[in-house]
Specification:
The chain is α/β, with parallel strands linked by helices. 41% of the residues lie in helices and 15% in strands. It has a 7-stranded mixed beta sheet with strand order 5-2-1-6-9-13-12, sandwiched between helices. Strands 3-4 form a two-stranded antiparallel sheet. α9 crosses α10 and α11 crosses α14. The termini are far apart.
C-alpha cells in the first residue's frame, strides 16, 4: 500500500530565510515513522523559475517545481516563508516581491490551508489573504504590518494564530517548528505531534497561539540519568512527585538530585515539575472542555487553588483567562467551568 500524502508547497524567492524553508520539512518528514498508518506529506519547493534561489544565509536552494506547474495540482497547504532587508540606517523592511505576492494570491485559491512563517505574514497581507483576520508575525515587524495593512488585526504576542478559513500565521523563525507541529496535530492528532516533538527533542510542546506565557524549551541533558528522570516525571505527572521519590528513582541522594537538576537543567526539581504541570494544564485548557477540577487532578496539582496559584506564578494570569485567550475553539460553558475560586 502506498503512503497517502498531503501536498505541502513551500514558496521560494530570492533572499528567503533559510530556516523558514528547511524547518517545517524536518517536522513533516517524521510523521510517517511516528504513525501506524501509511500517511504523511509530500513537500515541494516552488519558485517562479527553476533557477537556484539564494537564501538570506547565502545558501542556495534548488526549486522542485515552478509556481505555474504546481498551480495545476490540488495543494493541501501553502507555506509562505519570509525575510527582511536592513537599510543603511538599520531599519528593517520585510521583503514583499510583487511577483511572489501575485503567485501566492493565485495559488491560495487552489489551497486548503494557507500558512506563513515569521515575516511571511507580510506577503499574505499584501496578497489580501489576511484582511479582516487576526494575524501574527515576528515582533520586530509587527508594527510595520499593522501600519501597512490596517485591515489586518495584528497581535505580536502569539507563537502562531489560526483563523477561520484555514489561514495560519506564525511568529519568529524557530516558531516555524511549533507551527508545523500544530499542523501535524490538526492533520494526524495530538499524539502523533507529541511523538514527532519528542524526536525533535522538544520535550514540552509549547501551547498553540501563545509565546510570552510559554514554558521555555528545556535544555537537553548530556546524561542518560537526567533524561530518564525527565521522562519519568512526564509519565507520572498526575501523581505525587517529591524530591525523595525522584532521588530514590535515580538512585542518588536528595542533595545530589537537586545539584544534578541545577547543573544540567538550570532549575530545581520542584520548579521543573511545576513547569511541566503548568504546560500540560495549558494544553488541556486549549484543547478540551475539562473542568478545572479535572485539569488540576490530571496535571498533579491536587486542588484547583494550587492550579490557580501555579498559573499566577508562571503566567501572571488565571486558567480561565488563559483558556479564553488561547482556546482553539469556543469553550462550552457550564456551571463547572465557571471559575469562581479564581479570586483567591
Amino acid at each position: 500500500m502506498g503512503t497517502v500524502k498531503r501536498l505541502i508547497v513551500i514558496v521560494l524567492f530570492e533572499g528567503v530565510d533559510l530556516l523558514d524553508v528547511t524547518g517545517p520539512p524536518e517536522v513533516f518528514s517524521l510523521v510517517p515513522r511516528e504513525t501506524e498508518e501509511w500517511v504523511g506529506y509530500e513537500v515541494v519547493l516552488a519558485a517562479e523559475t527553476m533557477a537556484p534561489v539564494t537564501t538570506a544565509a547565502g545558501v542556495r536552494i534548488l526549486p522542485d517545481t515552478t509556481f505555474r506547474e504546481v498551480g495545476e495540482r490540488a495543494i493541501d497547504t501553502l507555506l509562505v516563508p519570509g525575510s527582511v532587508e536592513v537599510d543603511a540606517e538599520r531599519r528593517i523592511h520585510p521583503i514583499t516581491d510583487p511577483s511572489t505576492v501575485a503567485w501566492v494570491k493565485a495559488l491560495a485559491t487552489r489551497t486548503r490551508r494557507v500558512t506563513s512563517v515569521c515575516v511571511g505574514a507580510h506577503i499574505l497581507a499584501a496578497a489580501g489573504l489576511l484582511d479582516g483576520k487576526r494575524a501574527t508575525t515576528h515582533w520586530s515587524t509587527a508594527q510595520r504590518l499593522a501600519a501597512d495593512h490596517p485591515a489586518v488585526r495584528v497581535d505580536p504576542d502569539p507563537i502562531f494564530i489560526r483563523e477561520e478559513g484555514e489561514v495560519w500565521t506564525g511568529a519568529g523563525i524557530s516558531a516555524c517548528l511549533d507551527l508545523s507541529l500544530a499542523l501535524v496535530a490538526e492533520d494526524f492528532g495530538e499524539q502523533v505531534a507529541l511523538r514527532v516533538a519528542r524526536q525533535l527533542v522538544m520535550y514540552l510542546k509549547r501551547p498553540g497561539g501563545q509565546s510570552q506565557f510559554s514554558v521555555p524549551l528545556e535544555r537537553v541533558s548530556p546524561t542518560r540519568r537526567i533524561e530518564d528522570l525527565r521522562h519519568h516525571i512526564l509519565n507520572n505527572i498526575g501523581r505525587r512527585l517529591t524530591v525523595p521519590d525522584l532521588a530514590a528513582y535515580a538512585h542518588v541522594s536528595d542533595r545530589q538530585l537537586t545539584r544534578i537538576f541545577k547543573t544540567e537543567l538550570g532549575t530545581t526539581p520542584h520548579a521543573y515539575i511545576e513547569s511541566a504541570r503548568v504546560e500540560l494544564a495549558g494544553n488541556l485548557l486549549e484543547t478540551t472542555d475539562d473542568t478545572l477540577e479535572r485539569v488540576a487532578t490530571v496535571c498533579g496539582f491536587g486542588t484547583v487553588d494550587t492550579l490557580i496559584r501555579a498559573f499566577r506564578r508562571r503566567h501572571a494570569t488565571t486558567p480561565s483567562e488563559y483558556r479564553a485567550r488561547f482556546r482553539a475553539g469556543p469553550v462550552r460553558e457550564t456551571s463547572e467551568t465557571r471559575e469562581t475560586s479564581e479570586t483567591v
